[in-house]
Amino acid sequence: MACAAARSPAEQDRFICIYPAYLNNKKTIAEGRRIPVSKAVENPTATEIQDVCSAVGLNVLLEKNKMYSREWNRDVQYKGRVRVQLKQEDGSLCLLQFPSRKPFLLATYR
After folding, report:
1. 2 has a pLDDT exceeding 70
2. What CATH superfamily is the domain 12-108?
3. I need a labelling partner for 47 at 20 to 30 A (CA). Which of 9, 57, 68, 76 fits?
4. CA atoms within 13 A of residue 15's CA, in its CB half-sphere
């Protein structure tokens, strides 16, 4: 297996993962919410997250059959995760306003 430093940041398995639970204001931090309740939205879907990321101009990949490990509800509306490319092939940022996962999550649903 190749060392992580030798792999390109543009490979799809190096994209950051965003689960709907990260942005859900109905979840607690223990249940997986990663942003303040004031910036979170009610029951986002992976498709909605994909649409927002695409509108911002980021390269996204929707994985419909993935589930967040802390999600106890196995309904279809809670399925899915979005992979988002933050860095290009050469290691530079795709968009300067999103240098890492946290600023991306905070800015996604303003």
Report:
1. no
2. Signal recognition particle, SRP19-like subunit (3.30.56.30)
3. 9
4. 19
